[in-house]
Amino acid sequence: MYARKALYAAILLAATGATTPALAAEAAADPNDLAPGVAQSTVDQMRGALVENRDGVVIGKLADVVRGEDGELLAVVRPGEVDSEPGVGALVPLANFSRHEDHLRATTGQTVQSVASARERPAVAAEPVPGDIHLRKLAEGGKLQELAEETEPLRPFSDLDLDHDGVLTSSEAHASTAISDAWQELDVNDDGVIDRSEASVLYDDMYEGAPPTAEEVSR
């Protein structure tokens, strides 16, 4: 395992032309063993989040997630605005990240300067991954088309609200992976339930409004 880590770092150094270890993406001990907050998120949900290094210093923003040729998920960290200077940035194994509310922290020792000078694409053959599939699914592997087909459509609020009291309890929300995974973000007033206005944020993102109920479709 340690030999693999050393080889991986050496490949990154050679590809980027770096001369110091700080410019290499530091390989995680167990590739694709993602932290819970990261595993339950999608790329779209994390894109643009501030990234801190292991010392708590902001080193850039997460621009994207790609899959390396060995199947490992890699975060693309860029300095400044995520859409600036494409091709410039650092590749950091996603297994190195943990999520802290609206920002991410990685166990990397990289600095603002090393991120700004690193070249992301030449370091490793990589392919983009879908932005709307939970990273846990992507980490488990499988064909992207099959994973996309498994992505759960967001069920109508009225179908989930079994007792028709206008709110979703945790047990009702459990029937929807999309809502249960985003519970903390949706329950903005922290009252232990999700009302229609809170849920509308998710529906607007996915459907530009709540999808019709089964009764409405049959009319």
TrEMBL record:
InterPro entries: EF-hand-dom_pair, EF_hand_dom. SUPFAM superfamilies: EF-hand. Pfam families: EF-hand_5. Residues 1-24 form the signal peptide. Gene3D superfamilies: EF-hand. Keywords: Signal. It comes from the Bacteria. The keyword Signal applies. Residues 174-209 form the EF-hand domain. The keyword Translocase does not apply. PROSITE patterns: EF_HAND_2. This is EF-hand domain-containing protein. It comes from Thiohalocapsa halophila.
